[in-house]
Amino acid sequence: MKRLLFLFLLLWHLLPAQAAPACIPGLYGDQFPGSTITGPLRGDRGWYGWGWCRNAQGEPYSMSLICAHGECTSDIGGQVGRTMADLGRKLIGSTKREVYGAWWDANALAYHCRENDGAQVTEPSSPRGLACAELRALLAADLASFYTPPPPPPPPPVYTHAVKVNPACTLPTGCTRPVYLLANGVRGTAAVGRAEVGQPCDLSKPTAASGADVWASFGPLFETGKVALCARGTPAAAQ
């Protein structure tokens, strides 16, 4: 019966066509595992229903429906019965996405509650705006009950050294320095490549001191065992 939720709520507000979503909770599309469909739920500001789909990154996103108090269709029970009977006949020989998606195309909410636009932004103190605020709080609480977002990625490394300016090069860009092999703290004597001046140097990999400077792996590949002469300073400053 939960799959009736979205039909039940959409019947409160019928508007012209709107593109069918890739997922409708309980009906079709990539459902988010562990989530449930909630509603119809009567709140202080309106009636709500929602469920959760999964996006391409594997994260949950809500599909929510709303009806502020005083705006709901009075004959909701009869409309649901008639609609379900009609859609049930259309499901014969068709997919849920074809049938429910086409129905969604023709029946849309009168307003929405997205973060940056919608009723809660244009009319935040109106009945619709207050209902949106209540719905967003309900969604946040429900999301926290089944989903823990992954930790943020670690901050990018801070490089204190960069491939040292080559005094033999006068061009503003494209200057390079020789690259040598480094093994067991000993730098080779034969150059095996060139490193671009200003590339960041990674001192967390094996290095060899050279006065105030240091032989170290360099960007963009930071290959262990291949070093160029690096000087203190940010990559931008080294240019």
Question: Could you describe the 3D structure shown?
Answer:
The structure is a single chain. This protein is α+β, with helices and mostly antiparallel strands. The chain has 2 domains: 4-146, no CATH class; 161-238, no CATH class. It is 26% helix and 25% strand. It has 6 helices and 11 strands. The protein has helices at 4-10, 76-90, 96-106, 119-122, 127-146, 235-238, and strands at 38-42, 46-54, 60-68, 161-163, 176-183, 186-187, 193-196, 200-202, 208-210, 213-218, 226-232. Strands 4, 5, 6, 7, 8, 9, 10 and 11 form an 8-stranded antiparallel sheet that branches. Strands 1-2-3 form a 3-stranded antiparallel sheet, sandwiched between helices. The chain is elongated and about 90 Å long. The termini are far apart. Residues 12-17 have low confidence and may be disordered.
Number of helical segments? 6
User: What is the average per-residue confidence, as pLDDT, rounded to a whole number?
Assistant: 81
- Helix and strand sequence: HEEEHHHHEEEEEEEEH
Residue fraction in strands = 15-25%
> What assembly state would you assign to the polypeptide chains in this entry?
single chain
The number of distinct β-strands equals 11
Q: How many distinct domains?
A: 2
Q: Which structural category do the helix and sheet elements fall into? A: alpha+beta
Shape: elongated
Low-confidence runs of at least 5 consecutive residues: 12-17
Distance between the termini: 66 Å
Radius of gyration: 30 Å
Tell me about the biggest sheet? 8 strands, antiparallel
Helix content: 25-40%
